[in-house]
Please model this.
Amino acid sequence: MATPSSDYLTQIDNLLASSRQSWLFGAGISIGANIPLMEALTSRVFSVLAGKPAEALLSAIKEGLPPESHIEHVLSQIGDYAAIAERSRREVTIGKTPFSLTDLNLHHDAILSVIAEAIRWGYSPAIEETETCPAKAEVIGSYKQPLVDATDHINYIRSILGKSQAGLSDRRHPVKFFTTNYDTLLEDALALEGCTYWDGFSGGALAFRSYRYGDPEPTEPVRAHVIKLHGSIDWYLSSDDRVWRVRDGDLYPPRTGRVLIYPQSTKYLATQRDPFSAQFDLFRRAMALRGENILAICGYSFGDEHINQEIELAMGNPDNKTTILAFAPEFGCVPTKWRTSAWKERLYVIAESGLYVGDEGPFHEPGAGKKHDWWTFAGITKILNNGAEACVC
Model:
């Protein structure tokens, strides 16, 4: 007999109270903090570097990519060309323009610097006036006038590691936060709420990456793990290929790049020191757990094929018992495909149009002319605080 739709909301609450859970976050959770999405970040990079030496490379790369490509795709292309240049005559031709390996590396660093500035201090793009939205001018954050606001992240951490755990004596496993974001808002919110966490580094304000691919995960009691799949604005690569977490503005330790963001070409990739391989290995381990486990997804656009494949491979294992809670405004091709998979009964999609369980739904559709906001980062906090039923409009 099919489960009544009213029970699905209770199931969501029970899953979010699970003693073993992982979260996958994307850029969407930080837009309320005045950190730009990929489209706006890409436009910002092209705008800042217009008229500068890196512009020629950006233009040449852009011409060879699909129109919907963003700055991560550009970085990936530059990394590929740099690898080719290292194996050949230290030079490549992109379109009709030759670029030396030195130029590629310098322009790559220039792009990373613009990304780091926009994310560290915040950036709000201009918005044209529409029938439902007034025009909005561009606002650029700076050291003197930062725009970044951690309120949403603090409220979420307070809920997921506070109220949602109150009275749950069996909650012994740290919550694992996997994120593709470069910002430090999760770490900042955890610290501000007094929650201990592990991120693979050892030290204080200046820290070195002590975790390596294949190492066991820490056994010391911490409330959370923060695994940044695409790097961070405070990760730096030193001249001896070590990864450091460094305060903004420090001149030490010596480093070869402004910031370490995936994807890019580095000498040690595919070695034990490669932090990105290690991060994805941790994600793979979390997805491969044999016991009851949940993966909640928020702010992620399902645009990273590597991540999608890891999820699909794990969920397709007959022994896997992971349940996915996908919070998304609407269906893209990936969630649509998942709804027809062999493991569809363990998939919940919480969207603005209602709740979908496997290939069934929508349940709890919003009223006429309304849309649910329970799929947003702030909406999840409301669910954690008040229960899913209280968030149905």
